[in-house]
Amino acid sequence: MRQFLLARLAQAGIVALVVGALCFALMRVLPGDAAMRIAAGRYGPDARIAEAADKVRLELGLDRAWPVQFLDWLASLVQFDLGHSLVTGAPVVDELKVQLGASVWLAAAAIMLSLLIGPTIGVFCGLKPNGWTDRLGLAGSVILRSLPPFVLGLILMLVFAIWLGWLPPAGFGTWRDLALPALTLALGLAAVSSRVTRDAIATVVKAPYFVFARHKGLPEAAVVWRHGLRNAAIPVVSYLGLQAIYLVEGVVVVESIFAYPGIGHALVHAIVERDIPMVQGTALAMGLIFVAVTAAVEAASAWLDPRLRRTQ
Amino acid sequence: MNAPANIRELRISELSIHSGATPIVRNISLSLRPGQPLTLLGESGSGKSLVAQAVMGTLPPELVASGTIRLDGADLIASSPEERRKRWGRAISLLPQEPWLALDPTMQVGPQVAEVHRFVGGQAAPRSNARARANLDDVGLGHAGALYPFQMSGGMCQRAAIAIAHAAGSGLLIADEPTKGLDADLRDSVVTRLKQEVEAGRLLLTITHDIAVARALGGMVGIMLEGQLVDIGPAELVLGAPSHPYSRALLDADPESWDQRAQAPSGDAVLAGRFLAKAFGSHVLFRDFDVEVRAGEIVAVTGPSGCGKTTVGNILLGLVKPDTGSVERRKNVSPLRFQKLYQDPPAAFPPHQTIRRGLRDLAKLHRLQWAMWRNCSRAFVSTRTCSTACRARFREASCSASRSCARCFSIRSSCLPTRLHPASTRSARRR
Amino acid sequence: MSTEIASPSLLRPSPVSVTRVIGAALLLALAAFAVLGPWLVQADPAKQDFSASLAPIGGEYLLGADHYGRSLLARLAHGARLSFGMAFLTMLTAAIPGVLLGLAAAWRGGWLEWTLELLANIVLALPGLMLVLLLLAFAPGNFGPLYFGLALTLWVEFYRITRTTTATILKQPHIEAAKLLGFGSGYILRSYVLPSIAPLIATLAAFAMATAIIAISTLSAISVGLQPPTPELGSMIVELLPYYAEAPVHVLLPPILIFLLVLGLQLIAQKDSR
User: Fold this and answer.
1) Shortest Cα distance from A124 to chain C (angstroms)?
2) Which residue among A88, A208, B166, B187 is least enclosed by CB atoms within 10 Å?
3) Dist CA A25 CA A27 (whole Å)
């Protein structure tokens, strides 16, 4: 258990290091004077900008050697001192708080929805492998996986928002705004999780322990409930760990397409506007969400599978 | 222990099993009574497991059974699937092959026994748990209720499976290869346990290829060959003075009945290990181990699994480095003359290469004449189309290749038949 | 408990299936369109002709024209070449070092394996697209960071699969037997290891190309990848989207092309159903 925590902490550390180093490099390679940019971000571009830039340079120590500056940069990163946006001038942390909430809602809704769709279809496919439900499920899964998430999002937007007019095409505030982006993500996740569930069910049904449970004389409901579901859930849950990648990447894309004011949307905007403190803040937040989802999935796997709990 | 349901007789008459129009099992007739266990003996593919499946009612749907199987009057073949299923656990219990795979890996053993009382016996939860504890106590696993299968040894899993059979209180116990994958010591304890079942009044049908198990269980023994029961009778008679030629061949192939060869070591050592020691982590396998192999000598290293006998072999071959000690080989002998025959012969062949190709490459490597080899390998094109037994022969062929090609002819003659007969097993092992 | 035998399904070549044949045929057709199309069509994908704005399909322009009156057929052909070519290049850039390093790590072990594992873990700490996005921040809209970022995230999968599969194969008895019989490392690698890992690498290559195609079009669609007027399929969709009411089929053409490309790759990488 401790090993598992250490591994995730190390991952979080690597995330901070990679994001920090890239953004530090970004700050230095951009043309123009960094102090000037920061000053403009903080105080607005007025006549006394040069004076303000000198102040910023002194304050942030931008005249020191770059390794010193880099360590300094990392130190403030670790303390969650993420600086100010170069565009709006607001502290990055404040902006993140709002966006983080929106993104977490979206991600949670997507996971819930995908767990409703994927495993349900997977169970039906897995109980009769190679039957027509299974073939249909496979075809659906291959088709969904062949559609980039943004295309899927656009199709859903065209169908539900524009042709049918049931849901708003973009925005934020009510569940109706959440529905389309969450559904886009959920369908992409379910395309894979339905197949994983199908394979898991098909394997468990053939497993010696499942057959033996029947031979013990247990009624079918008890066999499935006590020996089928938990065992089939193990690969499905551990696969969710891999799906965290899809989820985080999807959040970036889907938020941008639906103009949903979350972290992914902010990240893409910051990149286009070269607002480096915002790039760093949002990338860090998304990276840490990724680590957190992976850790949660691992904990759930260990809870389900006693073999993972043993000390190694 | 739940008293076993009282069953007076299992009688199988004229049982045949067909796959389409092809008969796989033909005209089996036998009967079982309390106190008189029956063991079906035969090599794999002889159809002995199908007989057990027909009794249990678990034949694959493409196989059709005919004839009658009567369990105290009820005809098992004529039963509907629902009726068959009702008998599982209550009347008939199956001891699974490889019980460590048959126990649910994610559930403690206690609940796996208790659920039988709960769902088959209809008891309340606390009472089920108490009874499960008693069942586990009976087989010496009173302390193990909270363990998961992966925390238990093969023998413990086997006993847990027996405890589950007790829990349901069935009168007929079918043991399908109960000693598969077990060491000799564990095998004996499982046999002892099965004999106790017979004494408790259960009917016992055992399926095995292990002659020692059949001998130890006593009672009746039936010998199966290609779907037919070629010999049946009391164990002492069938195993002591076999009448059928196949029974005789089968018994002759048993290592126990090999005749002892006088050893004639001819002096100097070919290979020796001195003061060998090996540990994996903190687990010490052996220390100060001395072994010497002289010309013309057979040296056997035996012991329970995990004692390090394979490691000794690998150290002598130079595949594993000992922690301390040294290996001495006779001088001026090519390292190619120290070879290994593998436990699982098919695994010693690359799955992507035909045997022919492998032999040809070998001949080329050592500049041997391919023409002589080709005769050897003509009959076999691909590893995968070749039976386990013939691949074992080919492994031998390639071993001797590095010495000389002279053996090729003698090997060819024995490797052409695609099925390995017990008689040739014998000569192979004794070479 | 019993002797361990590596799962044979990993090591056995799978038979040719119908889905694979369909996938291969689809890919072949698309590759022909991508390679020969720009050459056969001749039209300039950037030439504007406002009189032909949103020209219908089947008229003077075979597949119609976009809002600037640019030939859609020419733009699709160039877009297909761009996506296919870039995905192929990225896959090669990821696969060659990935496989070689994986073989080296499994064969040598020790510090080399340790270093490579650390490197792989660093790359995997962030989702791939995030890393590409961060690199794109250096030069949004440029080909270089997009290509480099994708290759950087994709090599890890090749490395990991090669390393673990090779390590499993090297532990098998037939490798030990071959060494005892006097065969050298070169022969073992050529005749035993490569035939076993080749089908896996082919599958990975198809998935890597699919990932690259999706990533390139996605990033261009959210305007951090390649920028208009480059005929990139993702940015073409976004450009045409405002005209979905007047010319819905025009809008659908680029996504259909992406879909077919990825579908073809998915189908040839399809594992056999059990």
Assistant:
1) 15
2) A88
3) 5
